C-alpha cells in the first residue's frame, strides 16, 4: 500500500485485516479508524508529509498465484465491497466536511497479474467481458465511491480490452466521475503515465501521452512524467489549460477538505488534539490482537486435538522458518510495529519448556534440517510446525508458479509428523492459498491453522487460539485450489467456466473443479447450529406486486424471463427489500463467535451465466455456550438476486430463488 506516512501500530499486511470473514465490516472499520487516527497524530507531530493514503486494494483475488492477492479482501465481490466501504469510512472519518485522511481505492480495474510466464503487469492486455466487469471486477470500486465516499480512485497499469486504464475516458470520466459520482481525484499507479508510451506504445510522443491521460480525466500522475512533458504538451496544443485546471480543482478540493490550508494542524477543531498519546496506545494494541485473532482460520481439528491444555503440555517443539521471524508476520506493505510477538514467543507465554528449530533455511526451503527436526519431534510432548510462504515467494512484482509449499517443506512436515508421539499441529503463515492436500489427509497431522500474515500481535493471537483463550471463528475468503489449477493461464480473465473447452472457471461463484478447501470454510471449538426462521409476515418476503406493469423479457441465454433492475428503479428496489432472520445457537462447550454466511442459489446455473451461488451477506455473533440469538439480514433483490447479462446489464430472473444458510434453504418466488 502506498502510504504517505508511516503507521507504526498497523503493519499494512493484506491478510491481517481481511484474512478471514468474521465480523468483517465492524472489525475493519475499527482498525481503520485507528490507522486514520494515528496518521493524523503523526501529521500533527510533523512526522508525516501528507494525509493521502493510497489504500485499500480492493481488486478481486481472481487467481491464487497472484503475488498481491494478500493485500485484498479475497475473491468475492460482496465481501470486497463491504470491506471497501468500512475501510474508507474508517480512514476518512465521520465528518461530512473535514477529512481525517484521504483514502484511495486501487487498482481500477481487473488488475491481478504481476509477472507470469513472461507477461508483466506493465503491458498486459486484460481481455474482460462486460459481464465479468459488471458482477465481479467493478463492484468493489463502485461501493468505494458510492457508499464509502472515497476521495480517490487509482487506475491500474492494466490495459482493459486494448485501452490502458489510465487513458480510458470511459472508465475515468464516464464511470468513476459520472456514473458513480466520485467527489475527489483519480491518480495513476506509479509511472503508469510514462508506461503508456514506454511499455504499451499507446501514443507516439510524450506530449500525446500526457494529453491523452489528462483528457481522459486523470488528475494526478504518480511520477514526474506530466511535470516533465506537460508544458510542451500545452505549447504544442495537445491539451488545454482547462484540462489542467480540471485536474487542479479536484486535487486542491481534496487538500482543502484535509485542512491543508488552515494553518497549524494542531488547531483543528476535529483532529488537532491528536498526538503522541494516540500512537501505539493500549487500545490500538488490543485492537491489533483482536484483528489478528479474528483472522485465524481453523481448517482441521481431528479428534479435537485443539485447544491445548497448557498444564498438560510438559514440553513443546516449535519447528519452522516462520516460528521466530518477526518479518514473517507482515505483508509487503507495512509500517514499523510498536512491538512484535512471534509465534515462538507466544508459545513461551503458555509453556515453559519450548525448544525451537527453524528446520528450513528460508521459506524457499532449499535446505531442510530434517534429521534434527525428527529428533526434536520424537523427544517432545507436542509439536507445532510454523510453515508457509514469505515475501520472496509472493509480493508486488512476483507471482507464484506453484501452489505447493516451496522446496522441502512438505517432506519436512511429513517426516516430523511421522516421528512425533502424537498428531502434530500445522500453522500456515501465507497470504495466498496453498495446496496442502497431503496434510489434510494425513492422520498424523491433527490440526491445521491458517493465520495469513497476522501483523504485530500475530504470535500472541496464534498462541491464544492454540490454547483456547480465543475460540476461532474465521472463514476463508478465497477458494484453495489444487496444484493442477496452475495449468490454467493466469492471463485468462474469464470468471465463468467453459465446460466445452475444459476451462474450470474461477472463484466459488463459478469454479467447477476440485478444491482443497472452499470459500467460507472454517471450524470452531464449539458446535453451532443455524437455521432460517420461517414467518408468515408478509413484510419478510419481497413485495413482488411492485413488478406489476413491468415487462418480463425472455433471455437468449437459457430462455429465462427476467426484469431489468434499471426499469425497477431506485424507489422500486428499495420497496422490494425484506429482512431474512437466522437463528443461531452455540451448543458448546466453549463461548465464542460464530460467523453466519447467507448465500443465494438458483435452481439452475449450467449454461446460463448465473453463479453457482452468490454471497448475500455475513454476520458474526458472540454466544455463550447454550445461548441462542436471532440475526437479521437485510436482503435487497435488486442487489442480491440480480445477475449480469452478457452486456453487463443487471436483471432479476423470474421464478424461484433460494436463500441458503448452511444446509438450510428458503425458497423465494420472484414474479409479478
Give the tags:
signal, 18 helices, six-stranded mixed sheet, 3 domains, TIM Barrel, 672 residues, Fn3-like, Immunoglobulin-like, Glyco_hydro_3_C_sf, alpha/beta, Rossmann fold, xylan 1,4-beta-xylosidase activity, 27 strands, five-stranded mixed sheet, disordered N terminus
Element layout with pairings:
Layout: E1 2-3, H1 24-44, E2 52-54, H2 77-92, E3 102-108, E4 115-116, E5 119-120, E6 125-126, H3 130-137, H4 139-146, E7 152-155, E8 159-160, E9 163-164, H5 169-179, E10 185-188, H6 192-198, H7 206-216, H8 225-235, H9 241-258, H10 282-294, E11 297-301, E12 316-319, H11 343-348, E13 354-357, H12 370-378, E14 382-388, H13 409-419, E15 424-429, H14 437-440, E16 445-450, H15 458-466, H16 507-510, E17 528-532, E18 553-554, E19 561-564, H17 565-576, E20 578-586, E21 592-601, E22 613-623, E23 628-635, H18 637-641, E24 642-644, E25 650-653, E26 655-661, E27 664-670
Parallel strand pairs: 2-3, 3-7, 6-8, 7-10, 12-13, 12-14, 14-15, 15-16
Antiparallel strand pairs: 1-2, 4-5, 8-9, 11-16, 17-20, 18-19, 19-25, 20-23, 21-22, 21-26, 24-25, 26-27
Helix pairs in contact: 1-2, 1-10, 2-4, 6-7, 7-8, 10-15, 12-13
